[in-house]
C-alpha cells in the first residue's frame, strides 16, 4: 500500500477511495507511518490529532473531490475547533479557537481528512521555518542541510517527502511560493480575495495575505482552489469573477502569449546563476510552445524598494497587534518570542497611525505601477527566489533589527525579492518546479499575470506541466526516502 500511496497525487488517491480500492483508514495509516519514519529528520509535522481524523472517518466523510485523502493544516490560520495551534510561537502555544474558519469548513466539505498541522515561522514572518516552539528548524527533504522555506515550510517539506500529497499553506509575502520553490512543488497564489479569510478576520496584512496549497500536481492545486473558491460573507474585497473554474482552466487553450523574461530582480540587480539558468530554460520552453518571448523592459519608476519598506511596516504592525492581543495588557516575557518577532513589535512602536496609512497607500500605489508595467506583456517570468534554498541558519529569526532582517544586506528581501511584489499588487502568481541545480536542489520559476487572470495563469501552467512534467523528478525524492 505504501507504493500506491506515494505514486498517486491527491486526485488519484481520491479516485481509489471512490472506486473502493482503498479506504480512508488505510490512507491515514500510510500518512501516519510516513510521519513516524520521516518527520523526525524534517521537523515538518506538528500537533498531531489522530483521534480527530479517525472520528471523522468513523462518522462518515462528505462526498467531495478529495474524500478520504489525508491532509495537514498549517500551524497558522485555518482556524478550527478541533485543531489547536501555536501560530509558530511559544507565546501562543496550544491556543484553541472557538469557531471553524470558512476555509477549514470548505476543506472538510471536500472530504479531506485533516490529522495535524505543519510548522510555520512565528506568526508567519520569514522565508525559513526555524521557530523555537518546534525545538529546531524545519529541513528540506532534498537536502536536510537546507531550509524548506517559509512561512509554509512545514507544508512544503511534508508534501515533498510524501507524508501527504497536498497540504494547506498561506501566502502574505511568498509563503506558499517560497516553500514550493525550495521543495520542488507547485505553489499558486490566487488574485486577492479569491479565497475566504473569515469569520475571524476580513483580511491579513492589509489585504496582502491569502491562503493556498502546496501540491505535487497542478490538477490537485486546481481542484483544491475550486473547493474553497469565493470570499466569505462580509469580505472587505471581492475579486473579479471567473468565467469558469480552475479545473476547467487546466484544459483551456492559452493562445499565443507575450512573455517577458526577467532573469534579474525587479530592480535590475543580478541573481544567482542557477536562477538565471532556470528562467532562461523556461523561456526556451515557452518559445517552443509558440509564445512570443522577449526580455523584460523594467520601468525606472517601479520602486520595489519603497514597496518593501511599506510591506515591512504593515507586517510589523500586524505582528505587534497579534502579540498584544494575546498578552491582553500583561507584560511581555521576551523569552516567549523569537528575536525577529521582538524586533517587529519594537519597530511597530515607532510607526504612527499616519505612517501606517501611508504604507497602505504605498502598497496600493505599487499595485497601480505594477498593473501599468504588466500592460507590456501577458506574463512575467522570473525566478521565485534570487538564490537556491538557503542553508539552515542563514536567515535564522534571531535578528531583533526587524528592518535590517527584512531589507538589509543579506536579508530577506535580498533572498526573496520577487514574491512579495505580487502580494502587494494582489495579482495571481505561481511557482513551478521546472529546474534543479547541480546539487539537486530545486529552483522554482515564478510566473505572474494581471489582476484577475487566474484562469489564464492556470491554463499556461498546465501547458508547461504537460510539456515539461516534473512528477518523475519528485518521485525520485519520494523513492529514496525511508
UniProtKB/TrEMBL annotation:
User: SUPFAM superfamilies, alphabetically?
Assistant: Amidase signature (AS) enzymes (SSF75304)
The residues forming the signal peptide are none
Amidase domain mapped to chain residues: 31-457
InterPro entries from the entry? Amidase (IPR000120), Amidase_CS (IPR020556), Amidase_dom (IPR023631), AS_sf (IPR036928)
Q: Which PROSITE patterns match?
A: AMIDASES (PS00571)
Instruction: Tell me where on the tree of life, at the top rank, the source sits.
Output: Bacteria
Q: Family per UniProt?
A: Belongs to the amidase family.
Tell me what this protein is called. Amidase family protein
Q: Which organism is it from?
A: Sedimentitalea todarodis
